[in-house]
Amino acid sequence: MAVNVPASELEALQALPAQDLLAWAVERFHPHLKLACSFSAEDLVVLDMLTQLVEAPRVFTLDTGRLHQETYDLVDRVRERYGLEIEVYFPDFGAVERMVREHGMNLFYKSVELRKLCCRVRKVEPLKRALKGVKAWVTGLRREQSPTRAGLQKVEVDEAHGGLLKLNPLADWTREDVWRYVRERNLPYNALYDRGFKSIGCAPCTRPVGPNEPERAGRWWWESPDTKECGLHVRS
Ligand code: SF4
């Protein structure tokens, strides 16, 4: 759903701290505002902020069918802590069946094209359904996470999804900022972080990384760092 916000207002919003930007978004768009939550530490920071602004923020997650058990455990802990209904979107089962019959269960290791096909079927198409009727969506993306995110704005017009607003309130946060907030608010977090993971996606496509490796080095580690994204966060 396309949203019109004057360019001067968009410009002013870029300077707002995370909490203030979320307060603006809740005031302006709730209940047509959704948080995309993969249950990363960043997403839980944003979720925690939203729960301080509105009783029942709308939160969705994409269950690719290939997530870590630790992620599923966390989903339930978060549901219980906040008393929230999480909108879970699954891939189209017919599309998954066709894909694995044709290319195998572990197609993502065979080529970049097949990895991207899997991400399209399991993530990108369900995201489109999750964003139907929404005016703005929120992510926990940060510029520091990877070269592909270095130019991230706090507020973007998401042309790939019909011109709705995309808010990245933590765009200018560091990893340390995130973990300080997690500790101060005693937030639940994915147990895999304590086992060397810095970024957590699907189980077959994520591995732990060394202390000096980039944050997303463990995602699709066999691909080039300049291109690896799953297609959820397309920027024009
Ligand atoms: S991250 Fe891996 S398993 Fe998950 S959707 Fe993408 S290719 Fe498929």
Short descriptors:
236 residues, alpha/beta, Rossmann fold, six-stranded mixed β-sheet, 7 helices, 6 strands, 10% strand, binds iron/sulfur cluster
Structural notes for this entry:
It is a single chain. The protein has 236 residues and is an alpha/beta fold. It has one domain (7-205): Rossmann fold (3-Layer(aba) Sandwich). Helix content is 36%, strand content 10%. It is built from seven helices and six strands; from the N terminus they run ααβαβαβααβββα. It has helices at 7-13, 18-29, 41-51, 69-82, 93-103, 112-130, 175-184; strands spanning 33-36, 58-62, 86-89, 136-138, 155-158, 164-167. Strands 3-2-1-4-6-5 form a six-stranded mixed sheet. Strand 5 and strand 6 form a beta hairpin. Helix 3 (41-51) crosses helix 7. The radius of gyration is 17 Å and the shape is globular. Bound molecules: iron/sulfur cluster (SF4). Iron/sulfur cluster binds at residues 64, 66, 108, 115, 118-119, 122-123, 201-202, 204-205, 230. The site of iron/sulfur cluster has 13 residues, from helix 6.
Biggest beta sheet summary: 6 strands, mixed
Number of domains: 1
- What is the CATH first-level class name? Alpha Beta
Write down the overall geometry: globular
Could you tell me the strand content as a percent range? 5-15%
Quantity of strands, as a count:
6
List the bound ligands: iron/sulfur cluster
Radius of gyration: 17 Å
Order of helices and strands: HHEHEHEHHEEEH
Q: Which CATH architecture is right?
A: 3-Layer(aba) Sandwich
The CATH superfamily label reads: HUPs
Q: What is the mean pLDDT?
A: 93
Approximate helicity band:
25-40%
Q: What name does the CATH topology carry? A: Rossmann fold
Class based on secondary structure composition and strand pairing: alpha/beta
Sheet with most strands: strand arrangement: 3-2-1-4-6-5
